[in-house]
Amino acid sequence: MSLRWIILGCLITLGLTSHAQLSAADKQPPNILFIFSDDLAYQAISAYGDSRKLLETPHMDRLAREGMRFDRCLVGNSICGPSRATILTGKYSHMNGFYNNSNSRFDSSQVTFPKLLQAAGYSTAIMGKWHLVSDPVGFDEWHILPGQGIYYNPPMIHKGEKVKHTGYTTDVITDLSIDWLKKRDKTKPFMLMSQHKAPHREWSPAIRHLGWDKDRQHTEPETLFDDFAGRSRAVVEHDMGIDKTFTELDAKLKPAPGLTPEERQQWDAYYEPRNAAYRQAKLSGKELVRWRYNRYMHDYLGCVKAVDESVGRLLEYLESEGIADNTIVVMTSDQGFYLGEHGWFDKRWIFEESLRTPLLVRWPGSVKAGSSSSELVSLVDFAETFLDVAGQPIPAEMQGRSLVPVLKGETPADWRKSFYYHYYEYPSPHHVRPHYGVVTDRYKLVHYYNTDVDEWELMDRQKDPLETKSFYNDPAYTDTVRELKTELERLRRELKDTEPAPRKAYGNQPF
Ligand code: CA
Fold first, then answer.
1. pTM (2 decimals)?
2. Which of 119, 161, 190, 309 is deepest in the core (most CB within 10 A)?
3. Which domains can be identified in the chain, with CATH numbers?
4. Mean pLDDT throughout 370-389?
5. 79 Cα to the center of ligand 1, angstroms
């Protein structure tokens, strides 16, 4: 426990102070509630103010209103498993060994923040999506989806035992989270990771949310029909376009797995008349993309509605228990996601929508309500932040930095001005070539390497906020490119990513 807590405990024992004199925050280190979503785009959260106004998310907005909204929380490798490994270890993929979703397995002998918090006297639990292949370690209780899991009536694994659940997976995970909170050892602080599958592909909404948008035509992103003129081959040859990569499951032309016969009836009652009209229309070209975009938004945003309701239920529980004031609530995702920008779904790229993940933090008494931060922060900072919140020492091997001073509105003068990115998984799925790069508040310099393509791109968010062109070969940017290359090499040395990535980093298919 923190030194402060131990000293206070001694003072109480000696009769030198009393519980009544202690503020709620002094009684116990803060509880940590980590609400994690999978593939949740910041564009889908109304607190982020996306111009398309895709969805209202009152409960996540409440976290922003009562806490801090981070506008540039970045991920180091924009894909599910690697982000989770980074959060647990506070290290980049090349240091924790989890590079991709194809053939990586989490080495659970590593130091992780849940292990350290458990050893420090926290009750620890994880409920929901884990996705790291090896079993969770460092948790008093765990109840996880196997692999990606399914959206309806999910089989789960409770401490090694298979359990079949009834209901919509987002609700099931929230029920398990609240049940554990109710039964926890209340003499200890807790750290709970409540981790949703939603809104991961194939983004299947709760039955109660089918038709939520009343067949609205969703506002299109400006770059829905990006032609990638002047872009690298690495970008042009992607395989994540709504136009060509969308499957029948993505489009709900086939039903999702796991539905009960009654749910299937309700599913068909919503989708089938619309699918029949779609089949009859025989759409092609832009009209086909538009139809798919609207189907995608109905389904994806419908999933987010259930996640938002789950946030509301957890916040309500904290209040009913009287522990909201001594609980830090962190709402985030493992990466961002494309909601049609550049014609894409999915993630992976160093570009803004996949690089940036939402991050909302409520911590009464420490974080100013309604504040925001545009500092470059990252998932790699979370482990150190949670240890710092708990008053625990931070292992030197961790590669991030505690966000506690940023949360308190006291960002250190030497806070990072540049951020390192490295993506590996190739060629499948989605055919995004390995790349690494450096990100600043304005620029991104990216190097595609180690395949049949060896190219660089430079994005300038000030000149080109939608990131539709590369300025790498523009003579006006010669100095910028040189400076960014120097910074990129400095970051690679500092983070010990100076060697070529090992072959296993790319996945299990030859290319
Ligand atoms: Ca993900």
1. 0.95
2. 190
3. 29-204+297-418 (3.40.720.10), 420-506 (3.30.1120)
4. 98
5. 5
